[in-house]
Amino acid sequence: FDNEEPRHVLFSAHGVPASYIAAGDPYQEQIQECVDAIGKTLPDDVTVHLSYQSRVGPIEWLRPYTDDKLVELGEEMGVKNLVVVPISFVSEHIETLEEMDMEYKEVAEEAGITNWKRCPALNTSPAFLSDMADLIAESLSGPTQSVSEACVANNVNLDVSGDATGSTSSGGSTGRRPEVDLNGIMGMKDVERINGQFAMVGVVGTVLWEALSGKGLLHMFGL
């Protein structure tokens, strides 16, 4: 930035329903650890923030929401210089090119953030692809895991009769893998159904609009 205003970096991660985290999903913790690790490499005068985007449906998702965070940064904190980083997004797509570059940029400018920059996604970065290849090779050479074992390894709160090795609370061995009640975790099945219904309503509404008006959906917005 070519001014002396304080510099801020906002990491915007894809959100998930809050019930997933309450059920033991380590996603939020992993995102925070990643942001903290990257933040340590930045200059001391750079302030780091984290928010979550792309929520769907009427349920509670991880907060703070990115659009709310942008308003807070601009209107309440007076931030002028902001770099937005799409963390947990590995390639450019609608949530970076449209949601970030268009929608969130407009929100930021209206909130008074005059210098907006957005880091590109990793895409085909040689370092990223090399690291991914190494992780895949490492995984292929290691022991396989069942879904139950992978969930236990990631500290997901499961309805199980024992741990990943089949041991019981009394220390004995059941000799079998634990059962996982994935649909029963904090109403996740209901959450997915509600989100799916909202998405279907949107699709049906779009089809009806185009069929009745003879025009594309973007025409309704003057595009």
UniProtKB/TrEMBL annotation:
<keyword id="KW-0350">Heme biosynthesis</keyword>
<dbReference type="GO" id="GO:0006783">
    <property type="term" value="P:heme biosynthetic process"/>
</dbReference>
<dbReference type="GO" id="GO:0005743">
    <property type="term" value="C:mitochondrial inner membrane"/>
</dbReference>
<feature type="region of interest" description="Disordered">
    <location>
        <begin position="162"/>
        <end position="181"/>
    </location>
</feature>
<dbReference type="Pfam" id="PF00762">
    <property type="entry name" value="Ferrochelatase"/>
</dbReference>
<keyword id="KW-0496">Mitochondrion</keyword>
<dbReference type="InterPro" id="IPR001015">
    <property type="entry name" value="Ferrochelatase"/>
</dbReference>
<dbReference type="GO" id="GO:0004325">
    <property type="term" value="F:ferrochelatase activity"/>
</dbReference>
<keyword id="KW-0627">Porphyrin biosynthesis</keyword>
<comment type="pathway">
    <text>Porphyrin-containing compound metabolism; protoheme biosynthesis; protoheme from protoporphyrin-IX: step 1/1.</text>
</comment>
<keyword id="KW-0408">Iron</keyword>
<keyword id="KW-0999">Mitochondrion inner membrane</keyword>
<comment type="function">
    <text>Catalyzes the ferrous insertion into protoporphyrin IX.</text>
</comment>
<protein>
    <recommendedName>
        <fullName>Ferrochelatase</fullName>
        <ecNumber>4.98.1.1</ecNumber>
    </recommendedName>
</protein>
<keyword id="KW-0456">Lyase</keyword>
<dbReference type="InterPro" id="IPR019772">
    <property type="entry name" value="Ferrochelatase_AS"/>
</dbReference>
<keyword id="KW-0472">Membrane</keyword>
<comment type="similarity">
    <text>Belongs to the ferrochelatase family.</text>
</comment>
<dbReference type="InterPro" id="IPR033644">
    <property type="entry name" value="Ferrochelatase_C"/>
</dbReference>
